[in-house]
Design brief:
seven-stranded mixed sheet; Rossmann fold; eight-stranded mixed sheet; 14 helices
Length: 373
């Protein structure tokens, strides 16, 4: 199979979908790797290393997309990439379609097969391809949240760790999944006063055990979310429903009632965000102040640490991408339940219930709700 790896063109996205070692693995399996010139430069991976791995360097992105049977990306197609979608192409990337109607329509119109990293799900409910980037984003959320709280950024001028004789900042984390737990570890590690909320008591028990009790765990309900957010200096939203839009846990009224200069880091923004005041931003212009609260809503947070993120992503995705290349998409989906759950759009129809719920008027696979809902 011809596997294409284009350069990411989303603003300030420096990750690449495949490391040289990953390219070598495809070549060893008898596949041809087409790699766009300079695609790995932002991650510190020069073209020469891909040539050594057996890849072919391609200068023209239109030619790469036209020749490839399987395209591996990091972020969803944007701009001119949408016009490169076509029937017979298999696209494997982060899609977050429930928050992107334009892309969903483009995929439907193209007839392409779209597999989403974020909805590939094991039988135990875990999301192995989302996990590494969730871990990166969760750890980054405290780093960027601390920056948001600096006075020159509109923040309260709070040092999260506090100092001798001065209380630390209060951090509230919504969601105890991979991102939330990672955020919790970093926040607790620097000495902040941390509270994490989730609807799953087992997850809260796990977080408390991992951190040796150095964190407050609270069951998530409307009253508790409001109480904790009103007292917070930094709120980190990490709640995820696989394939679907993120629930709006923070109303505009609640945000307006938060402390002046408090901060929200909305890790869930890829799926629409967990606050009514959240809107997508990018690394060029990452923050804005609304209702007196600093918002950080960058849709590709791990893109700011591309070297770490690229290696972590390839470690997770390579085995599944090889399954598709080795057996073809039809056979791979037929034999892997996890891969089947990654299928979002195929042959002009939505194939994932979360995406279908977000866009009830768009074409969907027959019987989707009863078969998969």
């Amino acid at each position: 199979m011809r596997v294409g790896v284009p350069r990411e063109i989303k603003a300030e996205e420096k990750r690449v979908a495949l490391t040289p070692a990953g390219a070598a693995a495809f070549v060893a399996h008898g596949h041809e790797v087409l790699f766009e010139r300079g695609a790995g430069a932002g991650s510190g991976l020069p073209d020469a290393r891909y040539l050594e791995a057996g890849a072919r360097i391609v200068d023209d992105p239109d030619r790469l997309w036209a020749d490839a049977e399987l395209v591996l990306k990091v972020k969803e197609p944007v701009g001119p990439e949408m016009s490169r979608l076509r029937r017979g192409l298999v696209l494997f990337t982060y899609l977050h379609l429930a928050a992107g109607e334009e892309l969903t329509r483009a995929l439907i119109d193209s007839g392409a097969t779209a597999l989403a990293y974020e909805t590939l799900q094991l039988d135990d409910g875990s999301l192995p391809l989302l996990a590494p980037m969730s871990e990166v984003a969760g750890r980054l959320s405290i780093q960027v949240g601390a920056w948001c709280l600096e006075h020159q950024n509109g923040g309260r001028g709070i040092l999260l760790s506090g100092v001798s004789g001065v209380k630390p900042g209060r951090v509230v984390i919504l969601g105890a999944g991979i991102a939330g737990t990672s955020a919790c570890q970093v926040a607790a590690g620097i000495g902040a006063d941390v509270t994490i909320l989730d609807v799953n008591s087992a997850r809260l028990r796990y977080v408390r055990d991992v951190l040796g009790g150095h964190v407050n765990t609270v069951m998530s309900n409307r009253a508790n979310v409001e109480e904790e957010c009103l007292a917070a200096d930094l709120v980190v939203g990490t709640v995820l429903i696989p394939g679907a839009r993120a629930p709006k846990l923070l109303s505009r009224a609640l945000v307006a009632a938060m402390k002046d200069g408090a901060a929200i880091v909305d890790v869930s923004i890829d799926q629409g965000g967990s606050s009514e005041t959240s809107r997508p931003t990018n690394h060029d212009d990452p923050i804005y102040v609304e209702e007196g609260v600093v918002h950080y809503c960058v849709t590709n947070m791990p893109g700011i640490v591309p070297h770490t993120s690229t290696h972590a992503l390839t470690n997770a995705t390579l085995g599944y991408a090889l399954q598709v290349a080795d057996h073809g998409v039809g056979a791979a989906l037929a034999t892997s339940a996890a891969l089947r759950r990654s299928l979002n759009v195929d042959d002009g129809r939505i194939e994932h219930p979360g995406v279908a719920a977000a866009f009830p008027g768009l074409p969907r696979a027959e019987g989707l709700e009863t078969a998969r809902g």
